[in-house]
Design goal:
Blueprint lengths: L1 E8 L5 H12 L5 E8 L10 H15 L5 E11 L2 H14 L2 E6 L7 H5 L3 E4 L7 H19 L8
Parallel strand pairs: 1-2, 1-4, 3-4, 3-5
Length: 157
């Protein structure tokens, strides 16, 4: 069983984004288990520095990410992949580990030390995306990649 997780530092998503993420993850083909977990962002009015915000969020992320998972950081400076390349890469990641976790940072990104500890840094787009849309896009691409793995030509990727 391939286990996929999307962990995002986020507040409550708009209903449309919650619904879209849930729909894509529910559609995953047999042999794939997928879930999305929200991690509470550090309050920006707490008197802490940006480095302290990121460190606090990093601890929250670490508390929900299993030790035996392959961690992928979503990062605007990460590797850009086509859908076909992403599907092939996901297959490789799952061959290396039965569990893969994708981590989306909060409004200020991810703690640098946490990001360095991830196996890969992945870029979703060169465009700036709203946080909710980035989560929907990632869930859709995971569904598309898993569909391609099982022989379903999902929209002729």
């Amino acid at each position: 069983m391939a286990r996929l997780r999307v962990v995002a530092v986020t507040g409550r998503l708009p209903a449309w984004a919650e619904s879209a993420c849930a729909e894509y993850l529910k559609r995953m083909p047999r042999g794939y288990e997928a879930q999305r977990l929200a991690v509470k962002p550090e309050p920006r009015s707490s008197g802490k520095s940006p480095a302290q915000w990121l460190a606090a969020e990093s601890k929250r992320i670490a508390s929900v990410v299993p030790a035996d998972t392959l961690r992928i950081a979503l990062d605007e400076r990460g590797n850009a992949l086509t859908t076909t390349q992403f599907a092939a890469q996901l297959r490789d990641w799952l061959a290396a580990s039965a569990s893969v976790t994708f981590v989306i940072g909060g409004p200020d990104g991810l703690d640098a030390a946490f990001a360095r500890g991830c196996a890969v840094r992945l870029q979703l787009s060169t465009l700036t995306l709203p946080h909710a849309l980035a989560q929907v896009l990632l869930c859709e691409q995971l569904y598309r990649a898993a569909s391609l793995h099982t022989g379903h030509p999902y929209h002729r990727a």
